[in-house]
Design a protein that fits this description.
alpha/beta; Rossmann fold; 8-stranded mixed sheet; 8 strands; 45% helix; globular
Length: 292
Amino acid sequence: MKKVFSLIAIVAIGISWISWNKKMPIREKISKEDIIACYNMETLNAYQQEASMKPFASLHIDPKKVENAEQLGKMISFEAADGKPAGGYFIPAKKKSNRWLIVIQEWWGLNDNIKNEADKYYSDLGNMNVLAVDMYDGKVAATPDSAMKLMRGADMTRMVAIVKGAIAHAGKDASIYSVGWCFGGMWSLQTAMLAESKAKGSVMFYGRPESNVEKLKTLQCDIIGFFGNKDQSPSPAVVNDFEKNMQSAGKKLETHKYEAGHGFANPSNPAFNEAAAADAYRKAIAFLKAHS
């Protein structure tokens, strides 16, 4: 008798589950855009994992203190795509302009070195708005260990919202350019993809490239990248793969490689390579002007 009751109970539970499942809404087929967004986050999350480990931190030395006594810009607030406030170091164009350069920090944060770089690009590009976005919401690291902690706690979804907010802040008719170093080099490329048809040119100083060809196919601007042959993040092999992937995607990529290590273009980096940095900077300015 107990077996009969047990069998009846099992059948009843099965019928109830089938009935409940039929009432549940059927999930719509995942769109191509959803898939691309997932690939995008995979690249960002892969960087986050790498940058949270000691081997990556060992590529970085405590940055030299850089002072910026006569800053050309000021800190501003704008709305991120998640509805929360975001910040950035902003230098407005001298005359009204729809050209915007989004500058993206290294893994240290929006420090004085990045503000100095923003000032340099502003001075040499002519009439262009320059916005160095604060990807850490006010936090800045001074040592590799503290930078690792910031990276471990970073919310990549929040960072996407900050970049999207900066693009929206520039206005619907804006022409978007981007430049970044290391962490910012990766984000410079991602910014170009997020800017869609507004994107006019992107400059990468090292940084993890997007590895998904389908995502790269969404690019609507040319890319220039500067890499060190002695760098391990990204390594020369990763850079070579990036070149092949961009070719497969049918997109234009100009690369320049130097006998230098990680962070060679950062003046606050004790391993700063002045000759390589100067050559890369000249080429970056020429690229941005040619695409204006």
